[in-house]
Write a structure and sequence with these properties.
By secondary structure, the protein is of the alpha+beta class. Helix content is 44%, strand content 24%.
Length: 152
C-alpha cells in the first residue's frame, strides 16, 4: 500500500451519512413547523419568538449532526489528529502503545504511553467489515510510523 493511501483520513461512512440526513431532516421539519404553527390555536397563541425558538431548536440539532458528520482521524508523518464529537487532539505516533477494537466496542481506542485512552470515533463498528480493515490500517501506521529506536 502506498504512503498516500496509508495516510488518507479515517472517517465513518455510515455515521456520516446518517448524521447528514438527520441534520437536513431536522432543519426541514423544525423550520417547517415554525412556519406552519397557527397564530391562534384556541387556548394557545404562538408569537414570533415561539417560531424563532422552534427554528432554533432545529438549527441546534442540525449543528450537532454536522459535528458528528465531521468526525475524522487524519494521519500524518508526525502523528494522528483525532477529531471526535466534543474534542480534537493531536497524538504523536510515538505515544501510542496499542490500538484496540474489542468485541462489542463501538469504535477504536488508542492506549497511550501515559496510560490514557483516546477514542477514535472515526472508525466505527457500524461500518461493518470495513471497520476492521480501517482498524488494521491504523495499527499498521502506529507500528510503522511510531517505531523509533528505543521505543517499544
Amino acid at each position: 500500500m502506498s504512503t498516500t493511501e496509508q495516510l488518507r483520513p479515517f472517517q465513518s461512512r455510515r455515521g456520516r451519512a446518517v448524521a447528514t440526513v438527520m441534520g437536513v431532516l431536522s432543519l426541514v421539519v423544525f423550520c417547517g413547523l415554525a412556519v406552519l404553527l397557527p397564530y391562534d390555536a384556541g387556548l394557545m397563541t404562538f408569537q414570533g419568538g415561539d417560531r424563532v425558538l422552534v427554528a432554533g431548536i432545529g438549527a441546534l440539532l442540525a449543528g450537532v449532526c454536522w459535528r458528528y458528520a465531521t468526525i475524522r482521524a487524519v494521519p500524518g508523518p508526525q502523528g494522528l489528529l483525532v477529531r471526535n464529537l466534543v474534542s480534537s487532539r493531536r497524538i504523536p505516533w510515538t505515544e501510542v502503545v496499542t490500538v484496540e477494537f474489542g468485541d462489542g466496542a463501538p469504535w477504536v481506542t488508542l492506549e497511550l504511553d501515559d496510560t490514557d485512552t483516546v477514542a477514535v470515533m472515526a472508525i466505527q463498528r457500524a461500518d461493518g467489515p470495513s471497520s476492521m480493515t480501517e482498524a488494521t490500517r491504523l495499527a499498521g501506521l502506529v507500528r510503522d510510523l511510531g517505531a523509533l529506536p528505543g521505543h517499544p
